[in-house]
Amino acid sequence: MLSKMMAWMAALLVASSYCGVAEASASDDPPRDSRSTFPPESAIELQAALDEWAKAPHHRGVSATVVLADGAEWVSTAGIAGIEQPLRPEHLVCIASITKTMTGSVIMDLAKDGVLELDDPISRWLDQRDNIDPEITIRELLNHTNGLANYTRNPALNDQINVDTSHVFTSDELIAYVGPKSFERGVRTQYTNTSFVLLGMIASVVTDQSITELYHERLWQPQGLDEIFLPGLEEPTGPVARAWAGKRSEQEEIDPLELTSLITIGNSAFGLFSNARTVARWGRALFAGNVLGTEMRSEMLDFVPAAGNIPGESGAGLGIRRYSYLDREQWGHSGGSPLGSSLMLYDPTTGVTVAVLMNQGRGADHFALAPQLLSVVTDKTPGGHSTDR
């Protein structure tokens, strides 16, 4: 049964991009442990929305967090981690392409320090590789205007995933599956996991450190984030939830940690596991300017036209996305893989951050639930518009 499921999930991954498919002041943002209290009425309404989501027969587990502008948090879950096992806030699930916000932030932090430049060509840092245009810039990798083929679309990767389920894929191995370019760099936007594996490689070459060391030192430790890990390169930092894969009517419960070859193809593009409270705290820190500073935050928010394949998306920034829910703009990123679906939104109008993570692939409806939760705490007028508009 495991080999059958591996083959199905690998085929699904190859058939899809799975790029996963979001202004508050940084200086006066209160710390996360402020004494602010989350409004009880909103907490009740948010939980009702989660519980209603979990009632759907094709839904499994959801972990959700809402952080208000004053730092008050609501953290909760609904549904199951496995059969007769409820999903808990500490459970770690695949956050998929929300990983890109962290890999991109490592690169931009290095640019802030003057270690590299966003307009450096790949050739400055990496040796020539097949099907990789050496003139592509770091900026073009970050905003997906590079034209690179997506390695996860290569059927040969599907076959290799099933050869040895305990195999840990390296970034060099993954890049070997990149096919001929899709278009000339700079012509348009098309999401590709390839660019963020290359960014992870560049970060490692520049610093002589692994991407996990860079995540910890530059992002997670400064922000106090410790419920997150990259499978294959480090041990889990908490309990890993079961995942549900397959069609809506045929979902099967699996242990992600038994599928090493599958979960390690995500690498620095879509490989991280975490929970909603960690993802929401990360999003708030990133978009409020506490991670990159004013100049790099402005660079990050330099949007190009959206690729057009993600619900609600209206633009692509450097390692992030712009969305247009509730008749206004949000920043963040989504994620989708056979093992998990996710959406992180930061609403610059209100300073509210929302994160939802589901331990399932198809049918998660994360693009509907996250805006719904955002609406609960920001849209109070009868017309559904923010009182802060």
* Class by SSE composition: alpha+beta
| Biggest pleated-sheet summary | 8 strands, antiparallel
Radius of gyration: 20 Å
The tally of domains stands at 1
Helix content: 25-40%
Total beta strands:
13
Distance between the termini: 53 Å
Strand composition percent? 15-25%
Shape verdict: globular
The CATH homologous superfamily name equals DD-peptidase/beta-lactamase superfamily
Which strand order spans the largest sheet, edge to edge or round the barrel?
3-2-1-13-12-11-10-9
The count of helical stretches stands at: 13
CATH topology: Beta-lactamase
Helix-strand sequence: HHEEEEHHHHHHEEEHHEHHEEEEEH
Low confidence ranges = 14-35, 381-389
Description:
The chain has 389 residues and is of the alpha+beta class. 34% of the residues lie in helices and 17% in strands. The chain contains 13 helices and 13 strands. The strands form three sheets. Strands 3-2-1-13-12-11-10-9 form an eight-stranded antiparallel sheet, sandwiched between helices. A three-stranded antiparallel sheet has the order 4-8-5. It has a two-stranded antiparallel ribbon with strand order 6-7. A hairpin with a 2-residue loop joins strand 10 (321-325) and strand 11. Helix 3 (99-112) runs parallel beside helix 7 and helix 3 crosses helix 12.
